[in-house]
């Protein structure tokens, strides 16, 4: 066969490339559905008859959340309603038409709540100081009230796995607490259940999904506030780990749901004072003396042999 007959035409190459892209996009959509479905199931986030208020900021994550929840609702064996809510905080240049247009096209019930928290924050917080904590507190209060008014039984937020891990590290480094961001919690007014169905989803997946779906993203820096520098640094560190040490971030995330209170130091979680020897061997007990935490399986067998000798 000569070179002319084996060459792939540019059109055929384009078709092949388009097929590959479609295949990858489909895989991404399936993965997102699977992980969101799994988180919903693991934490019993949504029950039959729920009305889920999806908080939509105009960022990639909340768009992805709404999109995936809508897909899962079609397939779910239970019946639940979705209402999308956006809080227009009257930030300068906020494109107020974008979300109503998008949501109308989707054909989903929605509510836009107009509250000028931007002016309040600007008035109360001195110039140059960080505005996020007051802004979020105001936003939270308003969203809880709106949830009441709409009769929502669950409030869904678009935080993902990386938000949870960043919060975990921030709390540890700067708050001296082993505390992340829960996948499901009771709101601080005690009246609502807040859920984070993207808890198992990586940020890079919501980023890609937003590109694939061409969500009409509204920039998140309209208020003029700088992103929390420490969070930015932790995000960069995690991205570096992902590249250099594949699996490390996944392991840290898994560790959040595999906690051993007896091997930590919180006396409220484990009764160290009342601990006594039972006389019974525990096969899952402490192996700290016979295995190096970083040993490879081969190394650890050598260590065991040496100890046994
Ligand atoms: S970045 Fe701006 S809008 Fe977001 S919480 Fe901070 S002050 Fe509020």
TrEMBL record:
This is tRNA-cytidine(32) 2-sulfurtransferase. Its EC number is 2.8.1.-. It comes from Paucimonas lemoignei. The lineage of its organism: Bacteria, Pseudomonadati, Pseudomonadota, Betaproteobacteria, Burkholderiales. [4Fe-4S] cluster binds at residues 132, 135, 223. GO terms for molecular function: 4 iron, 4 sulfur cluster binding; ATP binding; magnesium ion binding; sulfurtransferase activity; tRNA binding. Homodimer. Catalyzes the ATP-dependent 2-thiolation of cytidine in position 32 of tRNA, to form 2-thiocytidine (s(2)C32). The sulfur atoms are provided by the cysteine/cysteine desulfurase (IscS) system. Residues 51-218 form the tRNA(Ile)-lysidine/2-thiocytidine synthase N-terminal domain. InterPro entries: Rossmann-like_a/b/a_fold, TilS/TtcA_N, tRNA_Cyd_32_2_STrfase, tRNA_thiolation_TtcA_Ctu1. SUPFAM superfamilies: Adenine nucleotide alpha hydrolases-like.
